[in-house]
Amino acid sequence: MTQFKSESELMGTAVVRPVSKRAKQWAEQAVFIDLLAMNEGKYAMWPKTYTTLNNAMVAAKTMQQRTMHAFKVCDWPGRFKTIITNENGLFQVWVAYTTEPEEKEAHNA
To answer: In what order do the strands lie in the sheet with 90-98?
Structure first.
């Protein structure tokens, strides 16, 4: 015989697929990017600190070039600018979103 239950009865014992660490990280980064876009031109600190300048520079470059996953798949058409700071030997990457075109270097003829 077929047994019927309501959704509320089933939710107590429902099996939910756990969210992977990577998916959680991408979701957090997407929120960070959305907040940047809503505060255009203002810098926000990336939530990770780096122990070497080289690692901070690599992270900043992946944000600027949109090769970091969350920056690659975001819907915002502008670009991201970064500033790296050194606070007590730890490097922080500060990120800003802008819709201004990238400044071209002036070449004197």
So the answer is: 44-50, 90-98, 79-87
Cβ pair 82, 63 in contact under 8 A:
yes
Buried b (16+ CB within 10 A) or exposed e, 15-42: eeeeeeeeeeeeeebbebbeebbeeeee
What pLDDT, in 10s, does the model give residues 76-103?
888 999 999 999 999 999 999 998 776 6
Cα Dmax for the chain: 88
Dump pLDDT digits (tens) for 23-62: 898 899 999 999 999 999 999 999 999 999 999 999 999 9
Whole-angstrom distance, CA of residue 100 vs CA of residue 8: 50
Question: What separation in angstroms does the CA of 10 have from each of 1, 2, 16, 71, 102?
Answer: 18, 15, 12, 38, 54
Phi, psi dihedrals of residue 94, rounded to the nearest 5°: -105, 135
For the whole model, what pTM was predicted? 0.72
